[in-house]
Amino acid sequence: VPPQLRQISETIWELPRSFRDGMLVPARFITSEKLLAGLESGVFEQTANVACLPGILKYSFCMPDGHWGYGFPIGGVAAMDSDSGVISPGGIGFDINCGMRLLLTNLTEEEVRPVIKELVDSLFSRIPTGVGCSGFIHCSRSEFRKLLTEGSRWCLKNGFAWPEDLELTEEGGCFEGADPGACSDKAVERGYDQVGTLGSGNHYCEIQVVRPENVFDNKTAAAFGLTIPNQVVISFHSGSRGFGHQVATDYLATFLRVMTGTYGIRTNDRELACAPFRSPDGQAYFAAMKCAVNMGFANRQMILHRIREVFSRVFNRSPQDLGMGMVYDVAHNTAKLETHEIDGEKREVLVHRKGATRCYGPAMAGIPARYQETGQPVIIGGSMETGSFLLAGESSAASTFFTTAHGSGRTMSRHQAKKMVKGQKLLGEMEQRGIHVRTSTYGGLAEEAGFAYKDMDEVASATEMAGLSRRVAKLLPMGNIKG
Ligand code: 5GP
Ligand code: MN
Ligand code: MN
Protein backbone atom coordinates (compact mmCIF):
# COMPACT_ATOMS: atom_id res chain seq x y z
CA VAL A 1 0.00 0.00 0.00
CA PRO A 2 1.53 3.36 -1.02
CA PRO A 3 2.20 5.65 2.00
CA GLN A 4 0.20 8.48 0.36
CA LEU A 5 -3.02 6.44 0.53
CA ARG A 6 -5.50 7.96 2.97
CA GLN A 7 -8.72 6.51 4.29
CA ILE A 8 -11.77 8.69 3.53
CA SER A 9 -14.50 6.46 5.00
CA GLU A 10 -15.14 2.87 6.00
CA THR A 11 -15.10 1.85 2.33
CA ILE A 12 -13.14 4.55 0.51
CA TRP A 13 -9.38 5.00 0.26
CA GLU A 14 -7.81 7.77 -1.82
CA LEU A 15 -4.54 8.57 -3.55
CA PRO A 16 -4.36 12.38 -3.80
CA ARG A 17 -3.23 14.16 -6.98
CA SER A 18 0.16 14.71 -5.40
CA PHE A 19 0.81 10.97 -5.67
CA ARG A 20 1.89 11.36 -9.29
CA ASP A 21 2.63 14.19 -11.72
CA GLY A 22 -0.18 14.72 -14.17
CA MET A 23 -3.03 13.38 -12.08
CA LEU A 24 -6.10 15.47 -12.94
CA VAL A 25 -8.27 13.91 -10.23
CA PRO A 26 -7.62 11.74 -7.17
CA ALA A 27 -7.76 7.92 -7.44
CA ARG A 28 -10.33 6.21 -5.25
CA PHE A 29 -10.41 2.60 -4.13
CA ILE A 30 -13.81 1.39 -3.01
CA THR A 31 -13.07 -1.64 -0.87
CA SER A 32 -12.82 -3.03 2.64
CA GLU A 33 -9.88 -3.09 5.04
CA LYS A 34 -9.43 -6.80 4.40
CA LEU A 35 -9.59 -6.58 0.59
CA LEU A 36 -7.32 -3.54 0.56
CA ALA A 37 -4.60 -5.55 2.29
CA GLY A 38 -4.64 -8.02 -0.61
CA LEU A 39 -4.43 -5.43 -3.43
CA GLU A 40 -1.37 -5.77 -5.70
CA SER A 41 0.77 -2.63 -5.86
CA GLY A 42 0.30 -2.41 -9.64
CA VAL A 43 -3.38 -1.61 -9.15
CA PHE A 44 -2.50 1.63 -7.32
CA GLU A 45 -0.21 2.62 -10.20
CA GLN A 46 -2.80 1.76 -12.82
CA THR A 47 -5.65 3.61 -11.11
CA ALA A 48 -3.39 6.66 -10.70
CA ASN A 49 -2.35 6.52 -14.38
CA VAL A 50 -6.00 6.52 -15.42
CA ALA A 51 -6.44 9.67 -13.29
CA CYS A 52 -4.08 11.43 -15.76
CA LEU A 53 -6.24 10.80 -18.85
CA PRO A 54 -7.57 13.99 -20.50
CA GLY A 55 -11.13 14.91 -19.54
CA ILE A 56 -11.49 12.57 -16.55
CA LEU A 57 -14.05 13.85 -14.05
CA LYS A 58 -14.20 13.56 -10.26
CA TYR A 59 -12.17 10.39 -9.60
CA SER A 60 -10.48 7.43 -11.18
CA PHE A 61 -12.17 4.50 -9.42
CA CYS A 62 -11.19 0.96 -8.61
CA MET A 63 -14.02 -1.34 -7.47
CA PRO A 64 -13.73 -3.87 -4.57
CA ASP A 65 -13.04 -6.74 -7.00
CA GLY A 66 -10.25 -4.75 -8.64
CA HIS A 67 -7.05 -6.38 -9.83
CA TRP A 68 -4.28 -5.76 -12.34
CA GLY A 69 -5.38 -5.43 -15.98
CA TYR A 70 -4.29 -4.12 -19.37
CA GLY A 71 -3.89 -0.34 -18.91
CA PHE A 72 -6.86 0.16 -16.59
CA PRO A 73 -7.23 -2.25 -13.69
CA ILE A 74 -10.05 -4.78 -14.01
CA GLY A 75 -12.66 -3.04 -11.87
CA GLY A 76 -11.58 0.34 -13.23
CA VAL A 77 -14.13 3.10 -13.78
CA ALA A 78 -13.56 6.50 -15.39
CA ALA A 79 -16.08 9.07 -16.60
CA MET A 80 -14.76 11.48 -19.22
CA ASP A 81 -16.15 14.82 -20.26
CA SER A 82 -17.78 13.96 -23.60
CA ASP A 83 -16.37 17.07 -25.30
CA SER A 84 -12.85 17.37 -23.93
CA GLY A 85 -12.24 13.78 -22.84
CA VAL A 86 -10.75 10.70 -24.45
CA ILE A 87 -11.95 7.19 -25.18
CA SER A 88 -9.51 4.41 -24.31
CA PRO A 89 -9.83 0.75 -25.37
CA GLY A 90 -7.86 -0.23 -22.26
CA GLY A 91 -10.74 1.21 -20.21
CA ILE A 92 -13.20 -1.14 -21.85
CA GLY A 93 -11.23 -4.34 -22.17
CA PHE A 94 -10.39 -6.76 -24.96
CA ASP A 95 -13.58 -8.72 -24.40
CA ILE A 96 -15.93 -5.85 -25.26
CA ASN A 97 -19.36 -6.41 -23.67
CA CYS A 98 -18.28 -9.32 -21.63
CA GLY A 99 -21.29 -9.66 -19.35
CA MET A 100 -23.51 -11.76 -17.16
CA ARG A 101 -27.01 -13.05 -17.77
CA LEU A 102 -29.28 -14.62 -15.17
CA LEU A 103 -32.11 -16.95 -16.10
CA LEU A 104 -34.90 -18.30 -13.87
CA THR A 105 -36.55 -21.69 -13.67
CA ASN A 106 -39.48 -22.78 -11.53
CA LEU A 107 -37.59 -25.97 -10.63
CA THR A 108 -36.24 -26.75 -7.18
CA GLU A 109 -32.93 -28.26 -6.16
CA GLU A 110 -34.75 -31.51 -5.33
CA GLU A 111 -36.01 -31.76 -8.91
CA VAL A 112 -32.71 -30.84 -10.55
CA ARG A 113 -30.22 -32.87 -8.44
CA PRO A 114 -31.17 -36.24 -9.95
CA VAL A 115 -30.54 -34.99 -13.50
CA ILE A 116 -27.67 -32.57 -12.87
CA LYS A 117 -25.15 -34.71 -14.78
CA GLU A 118 -27.44 -35.05 -17.73
CA LEU A 119 -28.09 -31.30 -17.74
CA VAL A 120 -24.45 -30.32 -17.50
CA ASP A 121 -23.38 -32.90 -20.08
CA SER A 122 -25.98 -31.77 -22.59
CA LEU A 123 -25.24 -28.10 -21.97
CA PHE A 124 -21.61 -28.97 -22.61
CA SER A 125 -22.40 -30.71 -25.87
CA ARG A 126 -24.88 -28.06 -27.07
CA ILE A 127 -23.00 -24.86 -26.18
CA PRO A 128 -19.65 -24.66 -27.96
CA THR A 129 -16.81 -23.94 -25.50
CA GLY A 130 -13.07 -23.41 -25.75
CA VAL A 131 -10.77 -20.87 -27.37
CA GLY A 132 -11.49 -21.13 -31.09
CA CYS A 133 -14.89 -22.81 -31.00
CA SER A 134 -17.48 -21.91 -33.60
CA GLY A 135 -21.21 -21.54 -33.18
CA PHE A 136 -24.23 -23.54 -34.27
CA ILE A 137 -25.61 -20.57 -36.18
CA HIS A 138 -24.17 -20.43 -39.63
CA CYS A 139 -24.50 -16.85 -40.68
CA SER A 140 -22.72 -15.34 -43.63
CA ARG A 141 -20.35 -12.43 -43.25
CA SER A 142 -22.99 -10.03 -44.55
CA GLU A 143 -25.65 -11.42 -42.20
CA PHE A 144 -23.14 -11.05 -39.36
CA ARG A 145 -22.72 -7.36 -40.25
CA LYS A 146 -26.50 -7.00 -39.84
CA LEU A 147 -26.29 -8.69 -36.47
CA LEU A 148 -23.61 -6.18 -35.47
CA THR A 149 -26.04 -3.30 -35.90
CA GLU A 150 -29.05 -5.09 -34.39
CA GLY A 151 -27.73 -7.06 -31.42
CA SER A 152 -30.46 -9.09 -29.70
CA ARG A 153 -33.05 -7.76 -32.16
CA TRP A 154 -31.39 -9.94 -34.81
CA CYS A 155 -32.02 -12.96 -32.57
CA LEU A 156 -35.65 -12.00 -32.02
CA LYS A 157 -36.23 -11.64 -35.77
CA ASN A 158 -34.73 -15.06 -36.35
CA GLY A 159 -36.73 -16.86 -33.67
CA PHE A 160 -34.04 -17.13 -30.98
CA ALA A 161 -35.53 -14.76 -28.39
CA TRP A 162 -38.68 -13.99 -26.46
CA PRO A 163 -39.71 -10.32 -26.75
CA GLU A 164 -39.29 -9.92 -22.98
CA ASP A 165 -35.66 -11.08 -23.23
CA LEU A 166 -34.83 -7.81 -24.97
CA GLU A 167 -36.62 -5.71 -22.35
CA LEU A 168 -34.60 -7.50 -19.71
CA THR A 169 -31.26 -6.80 -21.36
CA GLU A 170 -29.26 -3.63 -20.73
CA GLU A 171 -30.13 -1.13 -23.51
CA GLY A 172 -32.64 -3.62 -24.92
CA GLY A 173 -29.74 -5.73 -26.21
CA CYS A 174 -28.56 -3.14 -28.74
CA PHE A 175 -26.38 -0.06 -28.64
CA GLU A 176 -27.66 2.33 -31.32
CA GLY A 177 -25.10 3.78 -33.71
CA ALA A 178 -23.04 0.66 -34.34
CA ASP A 179 -21.18 0.88 -37.67
CA PRO A 180 -19.84 -2.36 -39.20
CA GLY A 181 -17.93 -0.18 -41.66
CA ALA A 182 -15.66 0.80 -38.77
CA CYS A 183 -14.68 -2.85 -38.17
CA SER A 184 -11.86 -4.60 -40.03
CA ASP A 185 -12.46 -7.60 -42.27
CA LYS A 186 -10.19 -9.50 -39.93
CA ALA A 187 -12.55 -8.81 -37.02
CA VAL A 188 -15.53 -10.03 -39.06
CA GLU A 189 -13.53 -13.07 -40.13
CA ARG A 190 -12.79 -13.96 -36.51
CA GLY A 191 -16.34 -13.40 -35.35
CA TYR A 192 -18.91 -14.39 -37.94
CA ASP A 193 -19.01 -18.05 -36.98
CA GLN A 194 -18.73 -17.51 -33.21
CA VAL A 195 -22.25 -16.37 -32.40
CA GLY A 196 -23.62 -18.59 -29.63
CA THR A 197 -20.29 -19.72 -28.18
CA LEU A 198 -19.11 -19.51 -24.61
CA GLY A 199 -15.38 -19.06 -25.14
CA SER A 200 -12.65 -20.11 -22.76
CA GLY A 201 -11.35 -19.86 -19.21
CA ASN A 202 -13.33 -17.51 -17.03
CA HIS A 203 -16.44 -17.83 -19.19
CA TYR A 204 -19.00 -20.21 -17.82
CA CYS A 205 -22.57 -21.39 -17.67
CA GLU A 206 -23.56 -22.38 -14.15
CA ILE A 207 -26.62 -24.07 -12.68
CA GLN A 208 -27.22 -22.57 -9.24
CA VAL A 209 -29.55 -22.87 -6.29
CA VAL A 210 -30.96 -20.10 -4.11
CA ARG A 211 -31.39 -21.45 -0.58
CA PRO A 212 -33.80 -19.57 1.72
CA GLU A 213 -30.98 -18.76 4.16
CA ASN A 214 -29.13 -17.03 1.30
CA VAL A 215 -31.87 -14.54 0.52
CA PHE A 216 -30.99 -11.15 2.04
CA ASP A 217 -33.90 -9.08 0.75
CA ASN A 218 -37.12 -11.05 0.29
CA LYS A 219 -39.11 -8.29 -1.34
CA THR A 220 -36.54 -7.57 -4.02
CA ALA A 221 -35.85 -11.27 -4.53
CA ALA A 222 -39.55 -11.79 -5.28
CA ALA A 223 -39.55 -8.84 -7.69
CA PHE A 224 -36.60 -10.47 -9.46
CA GLY A 225 -38.55 -13.74 -9.80
CA LEU A 226 -37.07 -15.66 -6.87
CA THR A 227 -40.22 -16.95 -5.21
CA ILE A 228 -39.66 -20.65 -4.50
CA PRO A 229 -37.49 -22.10 -1.69
CA ASN A 230 -34.38 -23.78 -3.17
CA GLN A 231 -35.17 -22.39 -6.59
CA VAL A 232 -32.78 -23.29 -9.40
CA VAL A 233 -31.40 -20.53 -11.62
CA ILE A 234 -28.81 -20.45 -14.38
CA SER A 235 -26.23 -17.75 -14.85
CA PHE A 236 -23.73 -17.41 -17.62
CA HIS A 237 -20.80 -15.22 -18.54
CA SER A 238 -19.53 -14.59 -22.05
CA GLY A 239 -18.65 -11.69 -24.32
CA SER A 240 -17.95 -10.75 -27.92
CA ARG A 241 -15.37 -13.49 -28.54
CA GLY A 242 -12.71 -13.09 -31.24
CA PHE A 243 -14.61 -10.24 -32.85
CA GLY A 244 -14.43 -7.89 -29.87
CA HIS A 245 -10.82 -8.86 -29.27
CA GLN A 246 -9.91 -7.91 -32.83
CA VAL A 247 -11.78 -4.58 -32.64
CA ALA A 248 -9.87 -3.69 -29.47
CA THR A 249 -6.55 -4.83 -31.00
CA ASP A 250 -7.13 -2.85 -34.22
CA TYR A 251 -7.94 0.41 -32.46
CA LEU A 252 -5.21 0.11 -29.86
CA ALA A 253 -2.75 -0.03 -32.77
CA THR A 254 -4.39 2.96 -34.47
CA PHE A 255 -4.50 5.02 -31.29
CA LEU A 256 -0.84 4.31 -30.54
CA ARG A 257 0.01 5.60 -34.01
CA VAL A 258 -2.03 8.82 -33.88
CA MET A 259 -2.25 9.67 -30.18
CA THR A 260 0.83 11.83 -29.81
CA GLY A 261 1.44 12.99 -33.38
CA THR A 262 -2.12 13.91 -34.34
CA TYR A 263 -3.67 14.70 -30.97
CA GLY A 264 -0.74 15.69 -28.78
CA ILE A 265 -1.67 13.28 -25.98
CA ARG A 266 0.90 11.49 -23.84
CA THR A 267 -0.01 8.78 -21.34
CA ASN A 268 2.04 7.21 -18.56
CA ASP A 269 1.49 3.79 -20.02
CA ARG A 270 1.29 2.66 -23.66
CA GLU A 271 -1.57 0.42 -22.62
CA LEU A 272 -3.65 3.54 -21.97
CA ALA A 273 -3.55 4.48 -25.67
CA CYS A 274 -6.54 6.73 -26.38
CA ALA A 275 -7.97 9.35 -28.73
CA PRO A 276 -10.19 12.35 -28.12
CA PHE A 277 -13.75 11.03 -27.98
CA ARG A 278 -14.98 13.65 -30.49
CA SER A 279 -12.14 13.04 -32.98
CA PRO A 280 -12.66 10.92 -36.13
CA ASP A 281 -10.53 8.16 -34.59
CA GLY A 282 -12.40 8.28 -31.30
CA GLN A 283 -15.77 8.15 -33.02
CA ALA A 284 -14.69 5.30 -35.32
CA TYR A 285 -13.65 3.22 -32.33
CA PHE A 286 -16.88 4.06 -30.50
CA ALA A 287 -18.93 2.90 -33.53
CA ALA A 288 -16.86 -0.31 -33.82
CA MET A 289 -17.05 -0.91 -30.07
CA LYS A 290 -20.85 -0.75 -30.34
CA CYS A 291 -20.72 -3.52 -32.97
CA ALA A 292 -18.80 -5.66 -30.51
CA VAL A 293 -21.29 -4.77 -27.77
CA ASN A 294 -24.10 -5.95 -30.04
CA MET A 295 -22.21 -9.13 -30.88
CA GLY A 296 -21.92 -9.76 -27.13
CA PHE A 297 -25.66 -9.34 -26.55
CA ALA A 298 -26.54 -11.55 -29.52
CA ASN A 299 -23.99 -14.14 -28.40
CA ARG A 300 -25.53 -14.38 -24.93
CA GLN A 301 -29.01 -14.48 -26.46
CA MET A 302 -28.09 -17.48 -28.61
CA ILE A 303 -26.57 -19.23 -25.59
CA LEU A 304 -29.80 -18.58 -23.69
CA HIS A 305 -31.73 -20.18 -26.54
CA ARG A 306 -29.59 -23.31 -26.29
CA ILE A 307 -29.99 -23.48 -22.50
CA ARG A 308 -33.77 -23.36 -22.88
CA GLU A 309 -33.61 -26.17 -25.45
CA VAL A 310 -31.51 -28.35 -23.16
CA PHE A 311 -33.75 -27.92 -20.11
CA SER A 312 -36.83 -28.42 -22.24
CA ARG A 313 -35.49 -31.71 -23.60
CA VAL A 314 -34.31 -33.05 -20.24
CA PHE A 315 -37.58 -32.22 -18.43
CA ASN A 316 -39.79 -32.80 -21.46
CA ARG A 317 -41.58 -29.51 -20.80
CA SER A 318 -41.54 -26.24 -22.72
CA PRO A 319 -39.20 -23.45 -21.57
CA GLN A 320 -42.30 -21.34 -20.84
CA ASP A 321 -43.70 -24.08 -18.66
CA LEU A 322 -40.35 -24.32 -16.87
CA GLY A 323 -40.52 -20.58 -16.15
CA MET A 324 -37.28 -19.92 -17.99
CA GLY A 325 -37.59 -16.15 -18.22
CA MET A 326 -34.64 -13.84 -17.71
CA VAL A 327 -33.88 -11.82 -14.62
CA TYR A 328 -31.47 -9.54 -16.45
CA ASP A 329 -28.43 -9.24 -18.72
CA VAL A 330 -25.80 -6.72 -17.79
CA ALA A 331 -22.53 -5.80 -19.47
CA HIS A 332 -19.28 -5.21 -17.59
CA ASN A 333 -16.86 -4.11 -20.34
CA THR A 334 -18.18 -1.00 -22.10
CA ALA A 335 -18.01 2.74 -22.55
CA LYS A 336 -21.35 4.53 -22.59
CA LEU A 337 -22.58 8.06 -23.04
CA GLU A 338 -24.73 8.76 -20.00
CA THR A 339 -26.09 11.76 -18.16
CA HIS A 340 -24.88 12.12 -14.60
CA GLU A 341 -25.13 14.87 -12.05
CA ILE A 342 -21.68 16.25 -11.34
CA ASP A 343 -21.31 18.91 -8.65
CA GLY A 344 -25.00 19.74 -8.95
CA GLU A 345 -24.97 19.98 -12.73
CA LYS A 346 -26.34 17.41 -15.20
CA ARG A 347 -23.68 16.52 -17.75
CA GLU A 348 -23.21 14.10 -20.59
CA VAL A 349 -20.20 11.92 -19.83
CA LEU A 350 -18.51 8.91 -21.37
CA VAL A 351 -18.36 6.27 -18.64
CA HIS A 352 -15.68 3.61 -19.06
CA ARG A 353 -16.51 0.45 -17.10
CA LYS A 354 -13.87 -2.24 -17.33
CA GLY A 355 -14.80 -5.27 -15.26
CA ALA A 356 -17.41 -3.09 -13.60
CA THR A 357 -21.20 -3.24 -13.72
CA ARG A 358 -23.69 -0.47 -14.29
CA CYS A 359 -26.08 -0.40 -11.31
CA TYR A 360 -28.93 2.03 -11.93
CA GLY A 361 -31.05 2.66 -8.87
CA PRO A 362 -34.83 2.80 -8.43
CA ALA A 363 -36.90 5.14 -10.63
CA MET A 364 -34.11 5.74 -13.15
CA ALA A 365 -34.73 5.92 -16.88
CA GLY A 366 -33.04 3.08 -18.73
CA ILE A 367 -34.12 0.17 -16.54
CA PRO A 368 -37.08 -2.16 -17.16
CA ALA A 369 -40.51 -1.03 -15.88
CA ARG A 370 -40.75 -4.05 -13.60
CA TYR A 371 -37.60 -2.99 -11.73
CA GLN A 372 -38.49 0.68 -11.23
CA GLU A 373 -39.12 0.14 -7.52
CA THR A 374 -36.22 -2.15 -6.77
CA GLY A 375 -33.43 -0.79 -8.92
CA GLN A 376 -31.62 -2.73 -11.62
CA PRO A 377 -30.55 -6.33 -11.00
CA VAL A 378 -26.77 -6.66 -10.71
CA ILE A 379 -25.32 -10.08 -11.42
CA ILE A 380 -21.82 -10.77 -10.19
CA GLY A 381 -19.80 -13.96 -10.43
CA GLY A 382 -17.84 -15.37 -7.49
CA SER A 383 -16.10 -18.54 -8.55
CA MET A 384 -17.14 -21.98 -9.73
CA GLU A 385 -16.56 -23.28 -6.20
CA THR A 386 -17.90 -20.60 -3.89
CA GLY A 387 -21.02 -18.99 -5.33
CA SER A 388 -22.19 -15.77 -6.90
CA PHE A 389 -24.39 -12.81 -5.99
CA LEU A 390 -27.52 -11.13 -7.21
CA LEU A 391 -27.72 -7.53 -6.03
CA ALA A 392 -29.81 -4.46 -6.78
CA GLY A 393 -28.80 -0.97 -7.86
CA GLU A 394 -29.04 1.83 -5.30
CA SER A 395 -29.59 5.58 -5.61
CA SER A 396 -26.49 6.13 -3.48
CA ALA A 397 -24.36 4.69 -6.31
CA ALA A 398 -24.44 8.11 -7.97
CA SER A 399 -21.00 8.66 -6.43
CA THR A 400 -19.44 6.07 -8.79
CA PHE A 401 -21.56 7.04 -11.81
CA PHE A 402 -23.83 4.14 -10.86
CA THR A 403 -21.16 1.49 -11.08
CA THR A 404 -20.42 -1.51 -8.89
CA ALA A 405 -18.29 -4.67 -8.90
CA HIS A 406 -18.60 -7.39 -11.57
CA GLY A 407 -17.17 -10.43 -9.81
CA SER A 408 -15.01 -11.35 -6.90
CA GLY A 409 -11.83 -10.60 -8.83
CA ARG A 410 -8.64 -12.62 -9.06
CA THR A 411 -6.12 -12.83 -6.23
CA MET A 412 -3.39 -14.46 -8.32
CA SER A 413 -2.37 -14.97 -11.92
CA ARG A 414 -3.62 -17.90 -13.95
CA HIS A 415 -0.06 -19.19 -14.13
CA GLN A 416 0.27 -19.16 -10.34
CA ALA A 417 -3.07 -20.93 -9.82
CA LYS A 418 -2.10 -23.67 -12.26
CA LYS A 419 1.00 -24.40 -10.20
CA MET A 420 -1.10 -24.94 -7.08
CA VAL A 421 -3.61 -27.53 -8.22
CA LYS A 422 -4.17 -30.06 -11.01
CA GLY A 423 -7.38 -29.57 -12.98
CA GLN A 424 -8.36 -33.22 -12.89
CA LYS A 425 -7.96 -33.40 -9.11
CA LEU A 426 -9.99 -30.21 -8.65
CA LEU A 427 -12.76 -31.61 -10.82
CA GLY A 428 -12.94 -34.73 -8.65
CA GLU A 429 -13.03 -32.71 -5.44
CA MET A 430 -15.82 -30.53 -6.73
CA GLU A 431 -17.78 -33.60 -7.79
CA GLN A 432 -17.49 -34.86 -4.18
CA ARG A 433 -18.98 -31.61 -2.98
CA GLY A 434 -21.92 -31.88 -5.35
CA ILE A 435 -20.73 -29.56 -8.10
CA HIS A 436 -20.72 -31.31 -11.46
CA VAL A 437 -18.27 -29.67 -13.88
CA ARG A 438 -17.44 -30.15 -17.53
CA THR A 439 -14.51 -28.27 -19.03
CA SER A 440 -12.74 -28.03 -22.37
CA THR A 441 -9.27 -28.09 -20.72
CA TYR A 442 -8.10 -29.33 -17.31
CA GLY A 443 -5.34 -26.73 -17.28
CA GLY A 444 -7.90 -24.00 -17.83
CA LEU A 445 -9.99 -25.36 -14.96
CA ALA A 446 -7.06 -25.23 -12.52
CA GLU A 447 -6.63 -21.53 -13.33
CA GLU A 448 -10.21 -21.00 -12.18
CA ALA A 449 -10.00 -22.67 -8.75
CA GLY A 450 -11.90 -20.94 -5.95
CA PHE A 451 -8.68 -19.97 -4.15
CA ALA A 452 -7.60 -17.93 -7.20
CA TYR A 453 -10.44 -15.49 -6.50
CA LYS A 454 -11.16 -13.04 -3.68
CA ASP A 455 -13.72 -13.76 -0.98
CA MET A 456 -17.05 -13.23 -2.72
CA ASP A 457 -18.95 -12.46 0.49
CA GLU A 458 -16.42 -9.79 1.38
CA VAL A 459 -16.71 -8.18 -2.07
CA ALA A 460 -20.52 -8.21 -2.01
CA SER A 461 -20.58 -6.74 1.52
CA ALA A 462 -18.11 -4.04 0.51
CA THR A 463 -20.32 -2.92 -2.39
CA GLU A 464 -23.29 -2.84 -0.02
CA MET A 465 -21.46 -0.93 2.71
CA ALA A 466 -20.25 1.55 0.10
CA GLY A 467 -23.88 2.08 -0.99
CA LEU A 468 -23.26 0.86 -4.54
CA SER A 469 -25.63 -2.11 -4.57
CA ARG A 470 -27.52 -4.11 -1.96
CA ARG A 471 -27.36 -7.88 -1.64
CA VAL A 472 -30.49 -9.71 -2.75
CA ALA A 473 -29.40 -13.35 -2.83
CA LYS A 474 -26.38 -15.59 -2.94
CA LEU A 475 -26.39 -18.25 -5.64
CA LEU A 476 -24.65 -21.57 -4.92
CA PRO A 477 -23.17 -23.72 -7.70
CA MET A 478 -24.61 -27.14 -8.56
CA GLY A 479 -23.16 -27.60 -12.02
CA ASN A 480 -20.93 -25.69 -14.40
CA ILE A 481 -19.64 -25.77 -17.91
CA LYS A 482 -16.33 -23.96 -18.11
CA GLY A 483 -14.78 -22.71 -21.30
P1 5GP B 1 -13.97 -11.47 -15.71
O1 5GP B 1 -15.06 -10.79 -16.44
O2 5GP B 1 -13.12 -10.49 -14.97
O3 5GP B 1 -13.20 -12.39 -16.55
O4 5GP B 1 -14.66 -12.41 -14.64
C1 5GP B 1 -15.75 -12.00 -13.89
C2 5GP B 1 -15.84 -12.71 -12.59
O5 5GP B 1 -16.51 -13.95 -12.75
C3 5GP B 1 -14.56 -13.08 -11.90
O6 5GP B 1 -14.03 -11.99 -11.19
C4 5GP B 1 -14.97 -14.20 -10.97
O7 5GP B 1 -15.32 -13.69 -9.72
C5 5GP B 1 -16.21 -14.77 -11.63
N1 5GP B 1 -16.07 -16.15 -12.12
C6 5GP B 1 -15.10 -16.65 -12.93
N2 5GP B 1 -15.34 -17.94 -13.19
C7 5GP B 1 -16.49 -18.27 -12.55
C8 5GP B 1 -17.29 -19.47 -12.46
O8 5GP B 1 -16.99 -20.51 -13.05
N3 5GP B 1 -18.42 -19.41 -11.72
C9 5GP B 1 -18.82 -18.27 -11.09
N4 5GP B 1 -19.95 -18.29 -10.40
N5 5GP B 1 -18.09 -17.14 -11.14
C10 5GP B 1 -16.95 -17.14 -11.86
MN1 MN C 1 -14.90 -12.06 -21.00
MN1 MN D 1 -16.24 -10.85 -17.95
Which secondary structure elements does this structure contain, and how are they paired or packed?
Elements: E1 6-7, E2 12-15, E3 27-30, H1 33-37, H2 41-50, E4 60-67, E5 74-81, E6 86-87, E7 99-108, H3 109-112, H4 116-126, H5 141-150, H6 152-157, H7 163-167, H8 185-191, E8 204-210, H9 218-223, E9 231-238, H10 241-263, E10 275-276, H11 280-315, E11 326-331, E12 333-342, E13 345-354, E14 357-358, E15 377-383, E16 387-393, E17 403-404, H12 414-420, H13 423-432, E18 436-439, H14 442-446, H15 456-465, E19 469-482
Parallel strand pairs: 3-4, 18-19
Antiparallel strand pairs: 1-2, 2-3, 4-5, 5-13, 6-10, 7-9, 7-11, 8-9, 8-19, 12-13, 14-17, 15-16, 16-19
Helix pairs in contact: 4-11, 5-11, 8-10, 10-11
The chain binds guanosine-5'-monophosphate and manganese (II) ion (2 copies).
The site of one manganese (II) ion has 3 residues, from loops.
